[in-house]
């Protein structure tokens, strides 16, 4: 057998000797040692200055090394602190689980993962955060989309313009403060789009009348500013607040002309047409030394921006006003909106001049009379007299309307209140509508001929040009079990068929790989939003997102909730049939009524809300 090889190790004597041991050496041996170099001296100084290990530090290291780990279950029972896992070594790669293997090559770009059906959770979170689906809505208002279809104001998503506008709105307060001399120079299309982005992404109550005036400053105040003369759309959806009210908007829509100066005395009268300027008399000093020294010039503050004026305004959105809604102010504002063609009053309260007096009554000797125009039980009694009267007064001023948005309004019955002959044929006829008002002349019992007009708006008169009315409730129930438990009816059957077609359309769109980067008025976006119990028509601003968050528990689609939705849908159908009957009787234009969903087949029911 071969002999085992035993390696021979040579032991070298260490050259370093601690300074404490060098004192015991003789002087002769130290004299014979070679002198140290500079590097050796530096290393020696470093070793001498290093802190020595103490007994506490040595015990701590020994305890960490010799400590035994406790299972997680026992650690929770004994209430012991969790032990942090050791950090991975730099440059090491994490091993995949057994049976799995990562895909070869580099990781896929984020832009590719956004359009994949099985995208990771963190990518979906980024999409929700960027597209505005986290804590807020991800779609513009109906009027902004209709305006974009005609004039192409909203940018594509994603794009550089979209990113810039969204960043500007998220930092609007700082932007108005530090960039107030550059905001007015934005082009008119970007100003209109910026208002729509403010209604969608800006924080609550961040836009005030001062920043509104700064955005629309004219060329006399700031050089190269575009002004407000060419603005066609004012998208104030969810922007009305205590600092930007309808009264402030009325100042911008009414042009005030300066009045001529009054002549106080007859001494100022003259036949000379040339302007005469009177300068104050200045006392003349006797010598140069007696003249007063001029005061040093103080910096003049910048003048406040003037109130903008919108002579070309034809489209106005006042949706989601919140507590700022005031029908009294809107009636006075409507006197300056005679050229308006598109109006959005989505989610406005019931028309009333005295909304705070709904529960107040006045007691007299004979009976108890409601203090306001409507009492607490007006809705149950189907009494829409005050609401119809306010709408009639509004129609007399806005006689150029062609597009009306009443999404989320529960008072649509007041649009046709008083036309019992046409409305009685439908399922939504009310018991309180006992009198038929017609514009035709009638003959009384005594032979007098007099004319009566309906208490509501005249659809063949002031509002004869309206071609589109949006009566969408703001949400659509998607619980098919709750719908199937309802009594048999036309609307539940149509809704079930529509929901099933929507499910098939959504699956088909997801299979085709359509991403989330499409515009909000596309068919695929409206299909995707129905899984939250509402279509994109209700996902239009921040107020709806606060009222109806993505939590499905908020949408408690119990039997009572679905029944209420069906009853309101029946009322909307009855109002639409009455409008069509009135237009047919007066030989007027056809009205397109949008319910937010269509009982038709295919994707034709996914209308974008256009006229």
Molecular structure report:
The strands form three sheets. Strands 1-2-3-6-9-10 form a six-stranded parallel β-sheet. It has helices at residues 27-32, 38-49, 55-66, 72-77, 110-113, 121-130, 142-151, 160-170, 172-178, 188-201, 209-215, 246-253, 327-334, 385-397, 420-423, 480-484, 490-512, 523-529, 542-547, 559-586, and strands at residues 233-235, 315-317, 342-344, 361-363, 368-370, 403-405, 441-443, 449-451, 468-470, 592-594. The longest helix is centred in the C-terminal third of the chain and has 28 residues, at 559-586. Helix 8 packs across helix 10 and helix 12 (246-253) packs parallel to helix 13 (327-334). Mean pLDDT is 74; it is low at 24-30, 129-137, 422-441, 514-556 and 601-611. By secondary structure, it is mainly alpha-helical. The termini are far apart. It is built from 20 helices and ten strands. It comes from Lojkania enalia. This is Tafazzin. Residues 1-60, 73-112, 273-304 are annotated as: Disordered. Residues 20-42 have a biased composition (Polar residues). Residues 295-304 have a biased composition (Pro residues).
Strand order of the biggest β-sheet = 1-2-3-6-9-10
- H/E series: HHHHHHHHHHHEHEHEEEHEHEEEHHHHHE
Shape: extended
What profile does the largest beta sheet have?
A: 6 strands, parallel
> What fraction, in percent, of the residue positions are helical?
25-40%
Task: Please summarize what this structure is.
The chain has helices spanning 27-32, 38-49, 55-66, 72-77, 110-113, 121-130, 142-151, 160-170, 172-178, 188-201, 209-215, 246-253, 327-334, 385-397, 420-423, 480-484, 490-512, 523-529, 542-547, 559-586; strands spanning 233-235, 315-317, 342-344, 361-363, 368-370, 403-405, 441-443, 449-451, 468-470, 592-594. The chain starts with 26 loop residues before the first helix and ends in a 17-residue tail after the last strand.
